[in-house]
Design brief:
Layout lengths: L1 H38 L6 H6 L42 E9 L6 H9 L5 E3 L2 E10 L2 E10 L9 H5 L2 E9 L3 H5 L1 H11 L4 E7 L1 H4 L4 H17 L3 E4 L8 H13 L16 E2 L1
Parallel strand pairs: 1-4, 1-5, 5-6, 6-7
Antiparallel strand pairs: 2-3, 3-4, 7-8
Organism: Lupinus luteus
InterPro entries: P-loop_NTPase, Small_GTPase
Protein name: Septum-promoting GTP-binding protein 1
Amino acid sequence: MPQFCREAGHSTTLPRRFQHRVSVIRRCLLRVIQRFVICSGGKLTDDTCRMLPPHAGLSPPPSPMAFSGDASHEALPISLPPSVFHNHVLDPDLVSLKITLLGDCQIGKTSFLVKYVGDEQEQQGKGLNQMDKILDVRGARISYCLWEVQGDGKSEEQIPMACKDSVAILIMFDLTSRCTLNSVLGWYKKARKWNQTAIPVLIGTKFDEFIQLPIDLQWTIASQARAYAKAVNATLFFSSATYNINVNKIFKFITAKLFDLPWTVERNLTVGEPIIDF
């Protein structure tokens, strides 16, 4: 009898293992077929593959950029900015908006982008870095196409292409380097030459290092930054990519401005704290 039970148990285990393996193989085949069908829908280029959402054909995961004030998950009508362009060939429902980052080199622009976007693959070109961030805004799927001009002398020729059609231009400087702060007005003028409608935002990086400076120097730099922001009619943020200070808040601010969402940022002018001024 025990031998019969062992044989019976063994006979039921084999079909289960077989069904499990068949299930795994079936899922793999379906995934390959899905990728083949998606990529066969149009001409395959590097830009096309880069623009594919991470889960094409599936309902998008909830985005960390969703605003807490939105009680309904239903699609609501939103007015799109005039610079909207649909370059997601394989996902026509995805609205692409371009945001440009300008500033001197070695001030933390790339670290800022990586902190916001995550582990997405960066697309590098001559003097340009590009990354994408997909989020939901009141039921609409939005892709922020983030263009970073590297900031050295050779990359300035990329400014016209980087600024054209942008809905927001982030002009960045290193809070611990006065010379990079002195450069922001020049970057602003170069950007406005090619784009007069984008939302300007002035961003000081490396706030975690800035607060180690003497308090009187902090006050001097903060006062100069506020004066420059007022001169170009830009909102000023102090940020830190290392500690994720004001990084997401900056893009929430831009999203709220673009889509007229009921979200406001609180002003903070306290020296020694991450300043927000507008």
